[in-house]
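subagent[fold] <- orchestrator: predict structure for attached chain, return C-alpha cells only, no commentary.
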Amino acid sequence: MVLQVQTSTYEAKTQEIAKQLLAATQENRSFFSSLRDQMRWDDKLLAWAMSNPGLRVQLFRFIDTLPALHSKSEIASHLQEYLGDESVELPAALKGMLNFANPDSMPGQVAATTVGTAVETLAHKYISGENIKQVIKTVERLRKEKMAFTIDLLGEAVITEAEAQSYLERYLELIQQLVEASKNWTAIPTIDEADGETIPKVQVSVKLTAFYSQFDPLDAKGSEERVSDRIRILLRGAKELGAAVHFDMEQYAYKDITLSILKKLLLEEEFRQRTDVGITIQAYLRDSEQDTKDVISWLKQRGYPLTIRLVKGAYWDQETIKAAQKHWPQPVYNDKAATDTNFETITQLLLENHQYVYSAIGSHNVRSHARAIAIAESLNVPRRRFELQVLYGMGDKVAKALVDRGYRVRVYCPYGELLPGMAYLIRRLLENTANSSFLRQNMENRPIEELLAPPIVKDAKNENSSVSSSFLGAADTDYAEEEVRTKAVQAFQSVRQQLGRTYLPLINGEYVNTPEFVDSLNPSNFSEVIGKVGLMSVEQAEQAMQAAKAAFSGWKKTPAKQRADILRKAGDLMEERRAELSVWIVLEVGKPVKEADGEVSEAIDFCRYYADEIERLDKGFNYNIPGETNHYIYQPRGIAVIISPWNFPLAIACGMTVAALVSGNCTLLKPAETSSVIAAKLTEILVDAGFPKGVFQYVPGKGSQVGAYLVNHPDTHVIAFTGSQEVGCKIYAEAATLKPGQKHMKRVIAEMGGKNAIIVDESADLDQAVVGVVQSAFGYSGQKCSAASRVIVLQPIYDTFVQRLAQATKSLNIGEAELPSTQVGPVIDANARDRIREYIEKGKAEAKVALELPAPEQGYFIGPVIFSEVSPNAVISQEEIFGPVLAVIRVKDFQEALAVANGTNYALTGGLYSRTPSHIQQAQTEFEVGNLYINRNITGAIVGRQPFGGFKLSGVGSKAGGPDYLLQFLEPRAVTENIQRQGFAPIEGAD
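subagent[fold] -> orchestrator:
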C-alpha cells in the first residue's frame, strides 16, 4: 500500500524547503541588479529584451536569422532592418551603435562584431558545446560540482532519410566517446549510485521523430516500423556500453504515437527488463495527467521501472497557434498557473507510485522542486527512484542548492553547432525573458510570498477558445487520434463495397438514362472501376436548360436566408459524410488521404462562407438623403453553367456551384469526366439538402459536345470554369459572341492555372524552405493549380539547397494514394502521364537532372523529377506541366529573382522564403501573383482566410472564398424613390 499524505501537509513542507532553497539562490544576487550596468553585451541584450516587448520580438527574430548571415555587412544590414523598425524603442546604447550610414562602413562592421559576439556568448550559456570534445569538458565540470548529465544533440529537423540515419550514427558515436571518457572519471556516490544500485554515468536524450524523416501519425504502422528498427540499434549499442537513453517528448501531434511506440518496444523480450530508459511527460498538456496514469498502469504490467521525466513543455506558442489555425481544441493550458498546478499534481502521482517509476522532476521553479522534495521526504521515496533536473545554463543556482541538500541533480545539456542550435536558444531566451518566468521574477526581487505561493488557476471560461475571426472554417481531421484513423479504415471498407455502381445525370429532379457510359478508373490501379458514369446527349442538355429556365422565377424569389440555410444544411451533410467523401476523392482522382480530407473541409467552408456572404449582400446598401431613398440591391443573373476540374473534384465543383445557387441562379454542373463520380456524390448532398428540382442539375458529358453546347447556349448567363488556359480562352472567346435570341452579355469566371515560383534567398531558414518547396511541388504529384513548378534560388545557397532538396524528395514515399504512408500518388490518367513524360524529356535536353525517382508500374505514376541549372526561359520554366516536375533556377541577387519570378504569362501563386525584412516588403509589392505566401508552403488556400485566384493569364474574375466572389453571380441595381408628398417628407428623428 502506497503511503498517501494530505496535500495540506505537503504545502507546509513545500514552503519551508522552498524558502531555504530560495535563500541559497539569493545569497549572491548581483546578476539582475548589475545587468544594466555591466559592459557585457550579452547581458545587456537580455536585460533590454526583458524590459521592452517590441525590442524582444525583433531581437529574437534577428538572432534566428544570424546563423544564415555570412559576412559582417550582412549582419550589420539585418541589424538595422530588424532593430530600426518603427515599432521598436531602442535603448540609447543600441541606438548609437546602429547609427551607421553603410553596412560596409567601419561603424557597421563594429556593430556586427559586437552583436555577433554577444549572441555567440549567449548561445554558449545555454548550449554545452559545439563538439563532443567541448561537451566532455562541460560534463566533467558538472561532475566536479556533483551533478549528473543527459546530452541532447541539437538540430533535429530531420527531413531526409540520410539525416535520420546520420542522427542514429551520431548518437552511437556520442555514447561511445562519452563512455570512453567516463572510464577516467572518479565515482561520485550522490550521482553514480543509490540504494546499492549503480546508475549509468552516461545518459543521452533523443527525439523519436528524428529516426524517420517521414514520421507521421497517419502512417502509425509504417512510422513505428521505421523508427523502432533504429531505436533497437540505439538501445543495443547503449546497453553494450553501459549508457542510459531517455526519450524526449515533442509536439502534441506526435505524443500518442510516441508513447505507443515506446510502450510496445519496451515490452519486447529483449528490452522488457531494461530500467536504464526514460520517457517524458509535458505538464502543459491537458491530457498529461491521464497519460501519466496510463504509463504507470503499463509499468505495473511491465514489472520493471523506467524513468518518467516531468517537464512543463517547450512548444506552447507553436501548439496554441497550430490549434487556432486548424480550428482544433487547444491541447495546452492557456494559463501558466494551470500548468503549474498540473505539474504539482503529476509530481505527486509519480512519487506516490515510486515502486513502479523513477521520477525525474525537471523545472527551474524553486517551488516545483520544493514540492517534489516535500512529497519525496514525506513518503520516504528511496534515492534511486527520484532525481531533480534543470536545463544547462538556466537554473545553475537552484541546481547547486539542491546538490547541497544531497539530492541527485541531472543537467540537460544540448550540444551542437550554432546553426541548428538557434531554435533551441530562442526557446530558452523566450523562457528566460517571459513575464511569467520564475527565473525572471526571482531576478526582479519579487516578494518571497508571491514567488512561492501555490498556483491559482484563473476562471477557465475561454480556456479552450481559439483565435476568433469573422468566419470559422471546418476543422480538418486530426489523424494523430487513433479512433479517427480507425474510422478512416472503415470508410475505405464501406466505399469499396460501393465501387462499380452507375451514376446518371440529374435533370429536373430525375435521374435519366443516357446513350453513352464511361468508366471512371482508380489512377493508382487502373484495373479498378470506381463507377460507371452516364454521359448525357446534347438533346438532354437542352432539356436541362429548359428545366432551369422554368425553375428560375421561383428560385429567384426564394428569400436569401432560405437559400443560405439549404447551403448550410449541405455543409453539415458533408461534415457527416466527411470520411466517405475523402475516400471517394482518394480512389477516383488519386489524392493522398490527408489532402483529400483537407479538400472536404474546403467544400464545407465554401457552403458556410457563401451562405454568410449572401445574407450580408442581401441587405444591400442605403444611400438615403432627406426626401429621397436610395437602395443599392442585388438580383440573380439567371442560369449558370459550372465546368469543374478533376484536381479538386469536390471543393472547386462545390464552391463554384453553391456560389451560383445561393445567389439565386439555376445551376448546371458539368464535371471533368475523370471525376464525375465525386460530382455525383456532391449531387446527392445538394439534393438531400433541399435544392428544388430544376434549380440544381448534374449534367456529366463530353466537354467538346455538352460543355461547348452549354457555353454557347443563348440562355446561359454565367459560366464558371476552372481548367487549362487553352480551354479557358476558348470559352472566353465563345461567350463574347452574341448568339441569336441572346439578350444579355455572358459573364465568364475562369481560373486557368499558373507557373508558380518560390524564391529562396540567402537569409532563408533552409530546413523550412526545403520542406515547404517539397510540399508545394510534389503534394498531389504537382497537380494543384497552386503547386510550385519553379524555385528560384540565390547564388550563395544554390548548391546546398539543391542537394538538400534532392535528398528530402528522395525520402518521400511514392505509392497508391490510399496507403497512409503515401506522399506522392499517381497522376490523373494515361494522357497526363504521357504529356508529363514528354516535358521530362524536354527538361533533359535543357537542364541537368538533379533527381529522377522511379515509380510503380500498376497505376499512372511518375516519380518526382528535379532539374537544376535551368534557364528562366526554358520550356520547363515557362509552360505549365501539371505534374511532379520542378525547375530550380539560379540567380545572382534578389532583384533578378523577382524579375525571373514575374517572367511568365501567369500570376497565380508565389512564395518567398526569407528572413530579410526589406526582401519581404519588396515581394509584397512587386511579386506579381494573386496569392503570395511568405515563409510557408504555397498550396492549401483556406476559404475566408486566403481567397484564391490570380491575374494575367492565370484567370479572370474575383477570388474564390473571398468577399467579392458572389458579386460575379449577381446583377446590382439602384432604386431611387422620391418620398416627398405635397412638400413634406418624413424626417428621421423628428417628433
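orchestrator: received. Logging for downstream: The chain has 35 helices and 33 strands. The longest helix spans residues 593-618.
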